[in-house]
Amino acid sequence: VLSKEKGKDITNILVVVDMIKCTRDTLWGPSLRIWAEIIELLQENYPRLVKEVLVIHPPTMFAEIYLSLRPYMKPSTLELIKVFGNNYFKYLEQRIPIHYIPAYLGGYKCDFDNNQQCFEDLNWVEQVPQWLYLMSSSIQARAQEFNILAGAKHVEEYMVTLRNSLLSWEFYHISQPLFFAIYIDTISDKTCTFKKE
């Protein structure tokens, strides 16, 4: 949408993370795990999407948070993060035209009702297309869960009867890396066609 609006390809984004009202309650436990998953998702699937991450108004415990998330970040991701205290504006206006920076951050942009946080720019009402819906009951009906102990292996066999079938999977590991392979068996010849560590 943005590429169409601007008339040129927009292939990466600048992320501004304003932590002014963040506390230990909002940045600990489950929320930290969510951030770790977002980081992994972006690194693995969209490595060039994020151009730069500017963290402004970091709270006093930011160092602890950063150390907690650091193991999930690749060196190339760590290079993208820049942390600023209250001296962020000069750097911010070098990256974003001042009329696009919300007024509460020092720019000129306000909503039509003079709200300096620009909530009207967020699309609160656009509906998610129905083809993207996936009901939790349908996920549970098809999902299988296995606990695989260190050094053990688990094998699943599927009969593919339709040409151009698509095989998809999702797995999580808690403590040790998984070695993952897909073999195709045409009558009796098993050939490894895919391997993932």
Can you give a write-up of this model?
This is CRAL-TRIO domain-containing protein. InterPro entries: CRAL-TRIO_dom, CRAL-TRIO_dom_sf, SEC14/CRAL-TRIO_domain. Residues 1-113 form the CRAL-TRIO domain. Pfam families: CRAL_TRIO. The chain has a domain at 2-121: CRAL-TRIO lipid binding domain (Phosphatidylinositol Transfer Protein Sec14p). Helices cover 24% and strands 16% of the residues. It has six helices and five strands; from the N terminus they run αβαβααβααββ. Strands 1-2-3 form a three-stranded parallel beta sheet, with no helix packed on it. Strands 4-5 form a two-stranded antiparallel ribbon. The longest helix has 16 residues, at 30-45. It is extended.
Task: Give the helix/strand layout.
Blueprint: H1 2-6, E1 13-18, H2 30-45, E2 50-56, H3 62-69, H4 75-78, E3 81-84, H5 89-95, H6 136-142, E4 180-186, E5 189-196
Parallel strand pairs: 1-2, 2-3
Antiparallel strand pairs: 4-5
Q: What topology, given as strand order, has the largest sheet?
A: 1-2-3
User: What structural class is derived from the secondary structure elements?
Assistant: alpha/beta
**CATH architect. name of the domain at 2-121:** 3-Layer(aba) Sandwich
Highest CATH level, the class of the domain at 2-121: Alpha Beta
User: What is the straight-line distance between the termini?
Assistant: 35 Å
Give the biggest sheet.
Answer: 3 strands, parallel
Beta-strand segment tally: 5
Helix content: 10-25%
SSE pattern: HEHEHHEHHEE
> What number is the mean pLDDT?
77
